[in-house]
Design a protein that fits this description.
Immunoglobulin-like, 5-stranded mixed beta sheet, about 40% helix, binds copper (II) ion
């Protein structure tokens, strides 16, 4: 109950639906998703025709050979063995399965063996209970839950290649409009790629049950124009804000256990257990899409994240109201 109402509240509050992209496999916006969509339609048509033929024959027989009032009760004539019919119902299904197998294999190969162009963007995705870490090794940028990638113009594609790792249990990376599900497995490296052709926000979700807060392990892919993407990368590369007005809050952050779990550049914090906070305020959501990133929400999150996302891996820190206010004022400057 809590979960359901929480989710509705989250939807209403910051427009999960309003960004113009309901997670939907029927509106693909990237080559791998498009190929999977076309394959799905092809399979649907073939199985649909089989359904109509089998269902039609069944319905026809039921009606045509139904019991009539003047039946004499004897069985109709029985046919034993027909090589032709047996051949037909063995060979035709085999051919259909072969066609489905070959087309599927072709799509899987086409997606998996696609060669990355030299200027492709590399992103390492790390699944954590219950959030996503995104590393940009080419730029030295680390962020969480909101992946920014450049739009890819089909005439000169600039795809993003994703390397998927897990820090703990199995997860699955799924942004239905951009690519098929790719499992995120501990001690095993998986790959996938996307080349989104329309700027916008694409919503995704962990697609393999990974623990209590699996349902709130959401992700957003921001597909930016090249200029917007370059600007975003540039901003992420900047050192963390160090505003003397909030020195008290920074002090609280640095002497609290926060530093063991979080990284924040230019401070002693270099934990990897929780999201990188260097540019926390550049994100629109908190807790992997659990709530909007507002000052009030941030305060409630720090006070007791478990009240918002029960079972999440961030403990309540028992700060006094004043410490909490100062700490949040500091975090608010991390643009
Ligand atoms: Cu999960």
């Amino acid at each position: 109950m809590l979960g359901a109402s929480g989710l509705t509240a989250a939807n209403g509050a910051f427009g999960v639906i309003a960004v113009g992209s309901v997670p939907n496999i029927f509106t693909p916006a990237s080559t791998p998703a498009d190929q999977i969509y076309k394959l799905a339609l092809f399979v649907l048509v073939i199985t649909g025709v089989i359904f109509l033929v089998v269902g039609g024959l069944l319905a026809y027989s039921l009606v045509k050979f139904r019991r009539r009032p003047n039946d004499d009760g004897r069985e109709p004539g029985q046919i034993y063995g027909s090589t032709q019919i047996e051949l037909a119902w063995t060979v035709i299904p085999m051919l259909i399965v072969l066609v489905l197998f070959l087309t599927t294999a072709r799509v899987i190969h086409g997606i998996e063996d696609a060669q990355a162009p030299e200027h492709a963007l590399d992103v390492t995705v790390v699944g954590h209970q219950f959030w996503w870490e995104f590393r940009y090794p080419q730029y030295g940028v680390v962020t969480a839950n909101e992946l920014h990638v450049p739009v890819s113009d089909p005439s000169s594609p600039s795809p993003t290649y994703l390397t998927l790792l897990s820090a703990d249990v199995a997860h699955s990376f799924w942004v239905p409009q951009l690519a098929g599900k790719t499992d995120v497995i501990p001690n095993h490296v998986n790959h996938t790629w996307i080349d989104p052709q329309q700027p916008g926000v694409y919503l995704g979700q962990c697609a393999m049950y990974c623990g209590t807060q699996h349902a709130h392990m959401l992700l957003r892919v921001y597909v930016d124009s090249r200029a917007d993407f370059d600007r975003w990368i540039h901003e992420q590369q900047q050192p963390a804000a160090d505003d003397p007005d909030v020195a008290a809050g920074r002090k609280i952050f640095e002497v609290t256990a926060c530093v063991n779990c979080h990284s924040l550049r230019e401070t002693i914090a270099d934990g990897r257990f929780g999201p990188d906070l260097t540019h926390l305020m550049s994100r629109t959501t908190l807790g992997a899409g659990s709530m909007p990133n507002t000052p009030d929400g941030l305060q409630r999150w720090i006070e007791n994240a478990g009240a918002i996302k029960p079972g999440c891996q961030m403990p309540a820190m028992d700060l006094s109201p004043q410490e909490l206010a100062e700490l949040v004022a500091y975090l608010e400057t991390l643009r």
